[in-house]
Design a protein that fits this description.
By secondary structure, the protein is of the alpha/beta class. Helix content is about 40%, strand content about 15%. The structure holds 1,3-dihydroxyacetonephosphate (13P).
């Protein structure tokens, strides 16, 4: 197996997946408050990239605010259609997201896999559509508690990642998020060592499916009950390049403290 250089100079990414929370008015108040909090803490220095993933109906409003106030947060959507346009009621094209200056799109979140029966093939088609529209897919993979018991931690996430990368060229910019389903919203995060082990295995899978350079460059995040109290442990791991945060990304103080993990990484 190829040995991947993990020192790759990857910029840490702290991403907030709001799921179906905060309408467009609440979004404005939240983003302004988060920006002021980080600015007061002199934390908008580019050492950590911050991205937020509001509901579709908030995107235009948040885009306008980020632009007007020069707030350096990346913007992302929570899903994208496999189709470019046409008679697909309720779907959102990657073309529309690019026009809203979205940089990222979450694809294959376990809640979409579970509640919307998204298969690995649908996830792969969405990744392809995202790349075709210049979006960076944040590819979510993770095992259920049952998978963990039957197959161990890495087997299902690696199989999901390989399937998701089937149409991806080695030069593509993608982000991978390891989110064990049993850790999402449960308050029971993986340990930093568990996260490191699976993230390292996922990086090896990127080397196998794409190439070593892609594996060294690609950011692999951990997600699942991340909070201010446990982020430092994850960020100390060589193969964990950031976090995909759900519930804690809806609380300004908690999320800003997660973003400022460098302040407590040595603690
Ligand atoms: P929680 O941080 O609420 O566990 O959610 C994680 C997640 O699903 C992010 O996509």
């Amino acid at each position: 197996m190829a040995t991947v250089n993990t020192s790759g100079g990857r910029t840490p990414l702290i991403a907030g997946n709001w799921k179906m929370n905060l309408d467009h008015l609440q979004a404005v108040a939240f983003v302004q408050k988060l920006h002021w909090t980080l600015k007061d803490a002199k934390h908008e220095d580019g050492s950590v990239e911050v991205a937020i993933f509001p509901p579709f109906t908030d995107l235009r409003t948040v885009q306008t605010l980020l632009d007007a106030d020069k707030i350096p947060f990346g913007l992302g959507a929570q899903d994208v259609s496999t189709k470019d346009s046409g008679a697909y009621t309720g779907e959102i094209s990657g073309a529309f997201l690019s026009k809203l200056d979205c940089r990222y799109v979450i694809i294959g979140h376990s809640e979409r896999r579970e509640y919307h029966a998204e298969s690995d093939d649908v996830v792969a088609a969405k990744v392809k559509a995202a790349l075709a529209h210049g979006l960076v897919p944040v590819i979510c993979v993770g095992e259920t508690a049952d998978d963990l018991e039957k197959h161990g931690a890495s087997a299902v996430p690696v199989a999901q990642l390989k399937a998701a990368l089937q149409h991806v060229p080695a030069s593509a910019d993608v982000v991978v998020a390891y989110e064990p389903v049993w850790a999402i919203g449960s308050g029971q995060a993986a340990t930093a060592e568990q996260a490191q082990e699976v993230c390292a295995t996922l990086r090896q899978a990127i080397a196998t499916e794409l190439d070593d350079e892609a594996a060294a460059r690609t950011r692999v995040l951990y997600g699942g009950s991340v909070k201010a109290a446990n982020i430092a442990g994850f960020m100390r791991q060589p193969d964990v390049d950031g976090a995909l945060v759900g519930g804690a990304s809806l609380l300004v103080d908690e999320f800003s403290s997660i973003i400022r993990y460098q302040k407590h990484v040595g603690v």
